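Q: Got a minute? One more chain.
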Amino acid sequence: MSAPNSLLGTLLHAVGGISASSCYLPSTKTKGWSWNTFWLAQSIFAWFIVPTLLAWITVPDFFNILSEAPSKSFWMALLLGGVYGFGGMSFGKAINYIGYSLTYTLAIGISAVVGTIMPLVVFGGLNDFFNKPGGSIVLLGMILSVIGVFVCGWAGFKKEKDLDADKLNKAGFNMMLGLVLSIIAGVLSGVFNLSLEYGQPIADMAAEHGAGQFEGNAKLVVSTFGCFIVNFVWYIILGMKQKTLVEFRPSKEDNYSKRRLIKNWLLSSLTGMLWCFQFFFYGLGHVKMGEYQFASWVLHMSMLIFFSYIVGVIMKEWKGVKKETYTLLVVGLIVLILSFCVTSYGSY
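A: Always. Here it is, folded:
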C-alpha cells in the first residue's frame, strides 16, 4: 500500500466531487426519452457495468474475492446498497423539481451528518467519539450543517416567490416536493456510506491480494449492485405501466431516430461513468487520508456541495431572483462549508 498523503487525499476527493456534481448534466441533452427511460439506462452503467469493470481491472482475483467474501459483509453491503437505491431515485427527481444547486446542498448536507453518525451508531464508539478531544467541535459542526440546510431550504422557498409563477410551473419547479425528496435522498445517501463500511472486509481482502490503493473498488461493486437491482426492477415495472419502454426501440423508417437513440445511450453511459467515478476517486482519497480516514465522508460531501453550486450558477438556475434571496442562499452555503471545516477540524 502506498504511503498516506492527506493533501493528495483531499485533492482526490475534490476530483470525485467534480465528477459527482456534473454527473446528471448529460440528462439535459437527451431527446425523445422520458425521465424513466433515461434513469433506467444510466443505472445500468452507474451501478453495474462501470463499477464491475473498474473492480475487474484494478483488483487481482476480484471474482474469487467476491466468492470468498464474508457472508455478513457481502449481504449487508448489498442490502444497504439496495436501500440507497431509493435515495438515488429521490435525488434524481429532486433535481427536476428544485434544480442542481439546491438539491445537492440539501441532500448532501444531510448526508454528511447521517453518513458520519450512522456508522458510529451501528459499529459502536459514538459516545467515545464525542468524548474525545475535539468531539464537541464535531458536534458543533453537525449543528451548523443542520442550520445551513435550513437556510438553503428557506432560500428555495423565497426563490419560488421571487420568480414568475408561470415560468416556474413550466420548468416543473416544486419546492415542497423537492425538499421532501432531498431529505429522503440525503438520509439514504448516508446509508450508502454504511453499506461501504459493512463491505470493508471485502476491501481488506482485496488489499491482501495486491489491490493497493484500489482496494475500495472491491466493496464498491457490491454496494452499487444492490442499488442497481432496486432501480432496475422499479423502472422496468414503471416503464411497463407507463409504456415508456418502447422509447428504447428506434423507428425502422426514421434514421434520425436511430442516431438520437445512440446519442441518448452515450449520454446515459457518460452519466453512469461520472457517478461511479465519484466513488472511484473517493476510494483513492479514502486510502490516502491514512489515519484521518474518518473525515473522508464529510470532506467528500463538502466538495460535492461546492462544485454543484458552481454548476447551478453556470446553468443560471438562480437568475432573476431577488438580491436578498441570492444572499440568503450564499449565507446558507457558507454555513454548510463552515460546518464541514469545523467537523473536519474536530475530527483531526
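A: The mean pLDDT is 82.
Q: Perfect, thanks.
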